[in-house]
Specification:
Elements (H helix, E strand, L loop, with lengths): L3 E4 L2 E4 L4 E7 L8 E7 L6 E7 L4 E3 L7 E6 L4 E6 L8 E9 L2 E4 L3 E6 L1
Parallel strand pairs: 2-11
Antiparallel strand pairs: 1-3, 3-8, 4-5, 4-9, 5-6, 7-8, 9-10, 9-11
C-alpha cells in the first residue's frame, strides 16, 4: 500500500496561482505514474495532468499552457503549479499513484477560484 498526502489547496482570485503537492509514503515500483484529477460539484472526476517516472506528461486540454506538473522522484512527490486560475478550475483535486496493479488516491484538497 501507498499513502498519499496532499497539500496546497485554498481560495484564490481568478488569475491567481496555487501550487499543489502530493507525497507518496513509498515507491512501489520504479515504473509508475503520478498525477492529479479533479472533481467539480455535480460533475465526474476528470484528468488534470499526469507524469510518468520516465518524465512523460499528459494534460487536459483545459489546463494546457496554465498548469505544469513536475515530480521529485527522490522524494516520491508530485507537484502541480497552477497559474492563471479560472473559476471553472474550482473543485476537489485528488492525487493519484499508479504502479503495477496498484491504483491509489489521496484524500483530496479543495481549490476554490473566485471571480
Amino acid at each position: 500500500q501507498v499513502q498519499l498526502v496532499e497539500s496546497g489547496g485554498g481560495l484564490v482570485q481568478a488569475g491567481g496561482s496555487l501550487r499543489l503537492s502530493c507525497a507518496a509514503s513509498r515507491k512501489m515500483f520504479s515504473v509508475n505514474t503520478m498525477g492529479w484529477y479533479r472533481q467539480a460539484p455535480g460533475k465526474e472526476r476528470e484528468l488534470v495532468a499526469t507524469m510518468t517516472s520516465g518524465g512523460s506528461t499528459n494534460y487536459a486540454d483545459s489546463v494546457k499552457g496554465r498548469f505544469t506538473i513536475s515530480r521529485d522522484l527522490a522524494k516520491n512527490t508530485v507537484y502541480l503549479q497552477m497559474n492563471s486560475l479560472k473559476p471553472e478550475d474550482t473543485g476537489v483535486y485528488y492525487c493519484n499513484y499508479r504502479a503495477g496493479p496498484f491504483n491509489g488516491w489521496g484524500q483530496g484538497t479543495h481549490v476554490t477560484v473566485s471571480s
